[in-house]
Write a structure and sequence with these properties.
With 409 residues, this protein is an alpha/beta fold. It has 2 domains: 141 residues, Aspartate Aminotransferase, domain 1 (Alpha-Beta Complex), CATH 3.90.1150.10; 256 residues, Aspartate Aminotransferase, domain 2 (3-Layer(aba) Sandwich). Helices cover 39% and strands 16% of the residues. A 7-stranded mixed β-sheet has the order 4-10-9-8-7-5-6, sandwiched between helices. A 4-stranded antiparallel β-sheet has the order 13-14-17-16, covered by helices on one side. Ligand 7TS binds next to helix 4.
């Protein structure tokens, strides 16, 4: 079992007071907080090892290169990839998806091609495809959702068909917390010869991921949502596909040979990592993954099930509350998106902040989804390893207080 209170003591920011209250951080879907181990790994790098990588023969450069390469090995282990050469470091999920759209997408799609996504997606798994279909004259199709925010797979056979070239789906919805059965959808995509991309931004931090078992072609996630710093993320790719794909950004580090006339590219994954990468970020990511693996991803998921169920049951007792997304905890990640009658989500967010509680309000960068569910915005509480039942008790009390405050009852 996870000892959240002990874990919380590793996170310096959680000692902060916000408006004279202990900070309760329930905005983990936006970004997670960072433990001292990760912060120190970055400080140590800059105080004792800082140098550029893959180019120096001097000690510091070799040490920095070694740390960077080991970070890739850790990431590979984290998602059960057999090969660290399948791991590309990017700035985050957004850049990982754009990389696939701009390289694989431009090279492989034409007017007969269809891309399939779902109605649950974050903007970063919608907008790159909307732009790509304009360039390639291909078509974008959506797997629809049911009223409870789960995917309606009843017409999947028609949606994914012989014209489908790419299926790009989120593992977990950031807007409402739905966990998709991606394994089945990947299988269906493979049956028609389509490539698959999984947006794991909201799953990789919270549950075990196994790319070998999933058999997806690409998987994207961000470091900052799993205890690592901002500006570092991952694109896992099927190595054969990566080798066939055109380069992404061009410049230093990604080349094999350059003449005044032409250039050739380095091997995968370096072909996709032009310029000096985020070395300190990669080292922070390595430390973050070690922290999470030490706790066990299965235990992290169990902890989130426990506190999410605890919160959900109490929230259901709030008069008139509307909770978006699935009821069944097996289909819901550690995230609750909701609306309270008579209290606008922004007002609720401001009220809760005055009590030290941080939640997100708005459309959560999933505007079409929130609209489809009949709202313009919602309040969203998202949980992580350091959150406790005690914090949830205070959260529920303050939601009730906000209703009294705004409804003047
Ligand atoms: N995909 C999903 C499912 C996400 O939740 C996010 C970020 C992204 C992609 C983009 O990640 P980035 O690191 O490249 O920005 N989601 C959120 C959120 O829910 N609130 O703030 C950011």
């Amino acid at each position: 079992m996870i000892d959240s209170e002990k874990i919380a003591s590793d996170f310096p920011i959680l000692k902060r007071k916000i408006n004279n209250n202990n900070l309760i951080y329930f905005d983990n879907a936006a970004t997670s907080q960072k433990p001292i181990q990760v912060i120190e790994s970055i400080t140590n790098f800059y105080t004792s090892t800082n140098a550029n990588i893959h180019r120096g023969v001097h000690t510091l450069s070799m040490e920095a290169t070694n740390l960077y390469d080991r970070a890739k090995e850790r990431v590979a282990e984290f998602i059960n990839s057999t090969d660290s050469e399948s791991i590309i470091f990017t700035r985050g999920t957004t850049e990982s998806i754009n990389l696939v759209a701009e390289t694989w997408g431009r090279a492989n799609l034409d007017e007969n091609s269809e891309i399939v996504i779902t109605e649950l997606e974050h903007h970063s798994n919608i907008v790159p495809w909307q732009e790509l279909i304009k360039e390639t004259n291909s078509k974008l199709k959506y797997i629809p959702i049911n009223n409870d925010g789960t995917l309606d797979l009843s017409n999947l056979d028609q949606i994914i068909n012989s014209n489908t070239k790419l299926v790009s789906i989120t593992h977990v919805s950031n807007g409402i917390g739905t966990i998709n059965n991606i394994k089945n959808i990947i299988k269906q995509a493979k049956d028609v010869g389509a490539i698959t991309l999984i947006d794991a931004a909201q799953s990789a931090p919270h549950m075990p991921i196994d790319v070998n078992d999933l058999e997806c072609d690409f998987l994207a996630f961000s470091g900052h949502k799993l205890l690592a710093p901002t500006g570092i993320g991952v694109l896992y790719g099927n190595k054969k596909l990566l080798e066939e794909m055109p380069a992404y950004q061009k410049g230093g580090d990604m080349i094999l040979e350059v003449t005044y006339q032409k250039s050739s590219w380095a091997d995968v994954p370096f072909k996709f990592e032009a310029g000096t990468p985020n070395i300190a970020g990669a080292i922070g990511l390595k430390s973050a993954i070690e922290y999470l693996m030490n706790l066990s991803m299965a235990e992290i998921r169990n902890h989130e099930i426990e506190i999410t169920e605890y919160a959900y049951e109490q929230m259901m007792n709030i008069n008139g509350i509307e909770i978006l997304g699935p009821e069944n905890i097996d289909e819901r990640a550690g995230l609750i998106s909701f609306n309270i009658p008579g209290v606008h989500p922004h007002d609720l967010g401001t009220f809760l902040d005055s009590k030290g509680i941080a939640i997100r309000t708005g459309h959560h960068c999933a505007m079409p989804l929130i609209k489809k569910l009949g709202s313009h915005s919602s309040a969203r509480a998202s949980f992580y390893i350091y959150n406790t039942k005690k914090e949830i008790d205070k959260f529920i009390t303050e939601i009730n207080n906000s209703m009294k405050y705004f409804n003047h009852v």
